Amino acid sequence: MSDVGLKRWLAVGLLLLVVAVVVFALLVPLVTAGIQNYDEKNDLLFRLQRQKTIAARESGVAENLAEVKQQFEDQGYFTTSSTEALASAELQNMVKKAVSEAGGQLSSTQGLPGKLEDGFFRVAVRVRMTASMETLSSVLHNIENAVPVLIIEQLDATPIRGVRNRTTNKVDTSLQLNISFQVVTFMRGQAQ
Question: Domain of 141: which CATH number?
């Protein structure tokens, strides 16, 4: 090959090299940016679809929440009385009924001052009664199964001293107990 032919091939090679560098300098960033934009677009579409799915469930969740609230109301966990005095009187009647059904002897019931706890108004009654262990068990069972929910606090039971037998001069044991406890129920919100 001659000098002129070699120069032409070198010029053509150099031209192809410059064209290749320009193509790579321009095309590679464009292709890379296009791929990144495509991935970002797919990610944003996925997020949008997920948000639409969540938004579509909002009405169903609101309906379910309303249904759960209604079921909670229907179960009667809280007293429906409108004031603390009415709630206390209702609670005292429930306790009297539980004691009389079990065969115990009620000594007294006393309403205690209510107080607000965690958004609920606490209504309590102090109870004093005399009963056997079996009767006490029955009273506690009746109170436990009552609606609205009743909670027993500060239970104290002491045996009643037996009576001295005049013929044997020994103390006959008594199966009776002096029992005191508090029964608590709750009202929604603040009492009036």
Answer: 3.30.70.60
